[in-house]
Amino acid sequence: MAGTSGSGSISGSISGVKRKIVVCIDGSDCSVNALEWYLNNLRKPDDTVVLLQVTSRGVGGMSLPVDAPVDVPQNSFDNIVTSQSGNDDVYITELKESYSGILLDYECDPSTCQFVSLNDNSPGSAICKFAKQNGVHHIVIGTRGLGKIKRKFLGSVSDHVIHNSNSSVSIVPNNNPTPT
After folding, report:
1. Is residue 178 part of a domain?
2. For residue 67, what are the CA distances in angstroms to 80, 140, 143, 150?
């Protein structure tokens, strides 16, 4: 029918525009679950997929993944500082290789995905800002499965994203949630 427009949905292109999907990654099982969920449930052949990794700068400018442990014993912390300090490029390269392997397992060509790495002290805000600035249609993010009490004190990147993003958001639960 001429002059009418169909309603768009997340399951297909909107007026011929390719969907831009962000899958948040950080090397954790939670983010692997999120990517696999996207590949199994939401993926369309013409999607533009961005694998977005956000690290926050910690002590001495060291990058830690978003889901870095909160209670780290001093000797473990020293090992983290020694092994990651100055090795951001190596970490990003290893992350890309790891997620490229997952994409290949699902017969998705990694060269069709964009890998974006950001450094920001507020990962949730960085994800929302990136999505808004880049016209993202949908964000897929994993959750650590924190209980209500821990989430209140530690914060939750997925909570922030779902409450502050202008894009639609899918929160993929952790297969092994932390007890409350």
Report:
1. no
2. 14, 16, 9, 13
